[in-house]
Amino acid sequence: MALLDDIAVKLAQDTFAQARATGDEALIDDVSKSLGATSNTLQEAYLTAIRYLRAEARARDVLVKRAAKG
């Protein structure tokens, strides 16, 4: 369902950005628990989006480090 994915991705992007900006990684879990209390399907889509964002962030860190080495 497109709406489900759109909501999950937007929520994950916003939460991930705030967690990185504040250093509050618990925020990601808190939002997940809140979603799980009402919609397990949305919670799973959100967690999948969070995993993608974390993987992208790690990959970009590798690229930056590699570029810095010259």
Structural account:
The chain is mainly alpha-helical. The protein has one domain (2-69). It is 89% helix and 0% strand. The longest helix is centred in the last third of the chain and has 30 residues, at 40-69. 16% of the residues are buried.
Helices and strands in order, then pairings?
Elements: H1 2-22, H2 26-36, H3 40-69
Helix pairs in contact: 1-2, 1-3, 2-3
Name a few traits of the molecule.
70 residues; mainly alpha; 3 helices; elongated
Summarize the structure.
This protein is mainly α and 70 residues long.
The total strand number stands at 0
Biggest sheet details: none
Q: What is the number of independent domains?
A: 1
H/E element order = HHH
Described by the principal axes of the CA atoms, the overall outline is elongated
Cα distance, first to last residue?
A: 44 Å
Helix percentage: over 70%
Judged by helices, strands and strand pairing, the structural class is mainly alpha
- Beta-strand percentage range: under 5%
Estimated radius of gyration: 14 Å
Mean pLDDT, all residues? 97
Count of helices? 3
Which segments are poorly predicted (pLDDT under 50) over 5 or more consecutive residues? none
